[in-house]
Amino acid sequence: MENLSKSYLQSRAKINENYTVGTLNDMPERIIQFGEGNFLRGFIDWMVDTLNKQGLFNGKVVIVQPINRGLVKELNSQDGLYTLLLRGLQNGSVVEKKSIITSVSRGIDPYADFKAYLKCAENPDMRFVISNTTEAGIAYNDDDKLDDEPPASYPGKLTVFLYKRFTYFKGEKSKGMVIIPCELIEQNGKTLKKVIVKLAEKWNLGSGFIDWINNSNYFMNTLVDRIVSGYPRDEIEKLTAEMGYNDNLIDAAEIFHLFVIEGDKAKAQELPLHKAGLNVIYTDNQTPYRTRKVRILNGAHTMTVLGAYLYGKDTVGQCMDDEIISSFMRKGITEEVIPTLDLPEKELTDFASAVFERFSNPFVEHMLMSISLNSTSKFKVRVLPSLLAYNKLKGELPDILTFSFAELIAFYKGTEIKDNALIGNRNGKEYKTSDNLDVLTMFRDLWASCYGSKSGIEKLVGEVLKRSDIWGEDLNDVSGLTQKISGYLYEIETNGIEDAIKAIIR
User: Fold this and answer.
1) Which end of the chain has a smaller Cβ tally under 10 Å, C or N?
2) What are the sequence ranges of the domains in the chain?
3) What is the H or E stretch that residue 85 is in?
4) What is the CATH number of domain 6-283?
5) pTM tops 0.85, yes or no
6) What is residue 132's DSSP assignment?
């Protein structure tokens, strides 16, 4: 069986009718992308492919391998081509879309061919920088040097690229770049710009270059959202037979996608993703969209999974299939979270509906114990703000969100720490709770001294809530919160998690 390549596509009379193929026309390289992993190929490169197919962009992506080991060799052996499977639920129906992505021109390994990397800076058509180098990728590295080939960090590599472009085009303003990082940190564009300016100052690259960075380059903050599960290893034999060719870079993702880009809206006309039927929003303020995602999508996970695990569920899909757990989640989001958010109600309810469909995606197996990692810090960011906002808005405490706090304390019940994990017990079987060791020690010690009486439970809850180093404030100061959480936790301890959840959703 042949490998996927341009010659294969051009020589074949017919590709499987279920697979669409992007345009194979030659186009200028207009995007330089740092990162060849599953996410960017299943998100940005798919979007560029969509633009090209609709005649809205006419540009290709050249991919730079950001670390010393990667997939560039495999990518070039397939002429930049790969198969993308988009699968999930839409309006209650299972949807599968299969396509061969043709938006990538080639890959460059700067560790093996640094000159080819710098040559991209001399390309007058190059306009956009895309990146996804993990959350730790946008960081200052004091060991980076201008003459490194290449510098170790992503900002170091990008600074070298931009300086080469600045000198080659003699500081021409129109040759600045639109820089769109996709790393999962807040203010990612603004943070990246700060690091580049700091490196430019350290390397003595001159005030003219720094002015060009500040005034001729556009750093966008972004919010990205799509689950990209990557190479479908368990299905590869079946898929290969169906496709009729070998593809070592096949990628899989969910149907849902969201891309919020904050910055100069004029750049939307240069990369008109929003005109291609894509869920892309150009805005001058992404904060409401980030808050929506954190409070609804991430919040739904965090408020549900700990109690659901104790209830006996292991995956998000199982939670959505269970009427009790699903009702708990939906009630919490629709009745207690959405009223606290500052966006049009229809936008919020539509987003929540999409979230529930995503959680029900039969092609994605999301383990509850994976989501449970570091739940105290997640609860502080994802759930607690909704709880406090509801209390301020309504003058009362929300039932579901407050109950989820009791679930957290119940989940963190254990009397032994082994291998930096607190050992809990679910129906006679051990499970490992992972978090900061100080947090685990606190819960271990508090549960060890609690004998299950109402007063004992209330004392335990009070000690947890007073930890302003964890929650940002002493939560005992929130009127009635200690007593309400204590009551719920006592019900869980006395009647069991199943009866307690059933009671709360009634």
Assistant:
1) C
2) 6-283, 287-505
3) strand 82-90
4) 3.40.50.720
5) yes
6) -
